[in-house]
Structure formats: structure tokens, C-alpha cells
Amino acid sequence: MIGVPLDVMTETDEEDLLARYAAGDRGAARALTIRLTPAVFAHATRLLGDRAEAEDVTQEAFLKLWRIAPDWRRGEARIGTWLYRVTANLCIDRLRKRRTGPLDEAHEPEDDAPSVERQLTDADRATALQDALDALPERQRQAVVLRHLDGLGNPEIAAIMDISPRAVESLTARGKRALAEMLGARREELGYAEEG
Amino acid sequence: MPKRDDRDSPVAAPDTELDAWFAAARAAPPEPTSDLMARIAGDAFAEQDRRAEQALVPSRPGLVARWVSALRRAEVAGLVAATVAGLWLGIAPPDSVAGVVDTVWSGSAARDTAFVDPLSAYDLALLEE
């Protein structure tokens, strides 16, 4: 199912649909679900590196949206921004619990041993990037994902993360430096050097 | 001058070097399953139903209304208690007030008061001096 990225929807679209949902319109509930779920789920998956957990977080974030709908105040915040913030907070809670849990329950990156014969695809590279993202500190990961994978601008990221745009720049810069180091070692094994 | 392919360069700048990785990740975004979409829509409908049911139940009075109501109940209770106590004293007065009750109910109090001398003999003697 293909959804519309959160930044493509206009504020009016989102708010009208949410107001209609709050008034009992089931069609508005379906429209909001179809439009917003893909972006929220992708964001959660990239932050958590785990599809099952990302599904739980996505469902929980939407439940919060459905409950707040009747009290939503138009023009105060963008629904997309609000959803990204709620989703990120839920993800960070889970990452912190994961870190304090028993070692055998900790998330381990998948063993992606290189194979000379294997035809490498974008999906393999995406997986390698995800492994590298998983190794970043939470806030750096969040900033990099919002900026470079979700495609948001610094002001919106600043609103989501509740920090200044300068702090966003700093976090993304440090995150990218760390990613470049981690991925540098995997460039050849993932086939970047052979293409061109 | 041919366009430089950052993926071929071992010393590419971090931004351009990473762009290829980011592009690969953006090209294959994690997609939600139809089951997840159904669960989310189901939650939305359930929340709508819950609110509709709530709207049918009469709403509870506010805090101020509840305080006023409690005070009114206390006032009425006080009035009833005073009435009952007064009635009880009239019907079965304790010994200490029995004389008073008799006096009040028989009307002798007013009669007796009419014969009370406001000045005693002692007072009159003092005035004469």
C-alpha cells in the first residue's frame, strides 16, 4: 500500500481529515491511516531497526492521535510533526529499555557476511546503512533519519526534537561522520567500488 | 569534464559518499503490512465508537456544581436535625429542662414575669439614702 509522505500533505488536508474523524467520519479515519501510516512506520523502523517493534510503536502513536483528535487545536502544530515526535519518543523509550535489558535480548545487527558471487542490490546497501544507523547514539540517529531518509528540513526537525536548528546541524554532522567511518569499511564488500 | 561518481572514489567527502547510501535506503523504504493498516483503522473505529457511547451517557456535573449540591444537602440535613431535636425536647424533655418546658407551654412564664419586682427592698433602701 502506498501512502503519501507526511511533507506532501497540506496542513489543511490533515486537519480537515482529523476534524472529520473526530466528528465520527469513518472515511476520514481510513484516509488518515492510508496517508500517514507508511511514513510513520518507515520512521519507526529506521529508528528501531526492527519491524515488529516498529509496528507496535506505529499502532501506539496512532492510538494517541485518535484519542487526541477531538481536542486537536487547529494551527497550533502540524499533525505530521506531532506524529514524528510521538513516534520518536516511543522509539527512544524502547531503545533505552532495550539497552537496560538482559544482554541476550539486546538487538544484534544481522550478520551480513560478504559473498563474491552475490549480486548486491540497493536493499543490501539499505540493510548495511540500517546496521550502521543502529550503532549511532539515539539523537544522532534520529536527526540523520529525519534529515536524510525522511527528507525533512532543519526547522521541522528542530520542532520534532525540541532543539535549535543549529543543534540539529551539529547532530546530523556528527552522525554522518560516524556513518561515513562505519560504512567506509564496507564500500568494497557491498559493491560500490565495482560499479560506476 | 566528466561528472564524478562519488561511489568510485575512496576519498569522497562524507556528504556525497553517504548520499549513495541514503539514496539506496530511500529507494527501499520499509512498507507497512496491510494487517498493520487494518489494526490502525480498527483502533480508529473503536475510539469513535467509544466516544459515541460516552456521548449518550449523561455527563457528570462539574466540581462547583457538586460542591453546591453537597452544601445544600448539608443545609437540609441541619434543618431536619434541628427540627427533630426541638420536637424531641418538647415531647420528652430531660429533667434539667422539664421546668422550663412546663413554664413555656403552660404560659405561666409571662404571668410570673408580670409580678416580678424590678427593684428589691435593698435597692430601694439604698435609693432613699
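qc> Chain A touches chain B through 48 residues (CB under 8 Å).
qc> done
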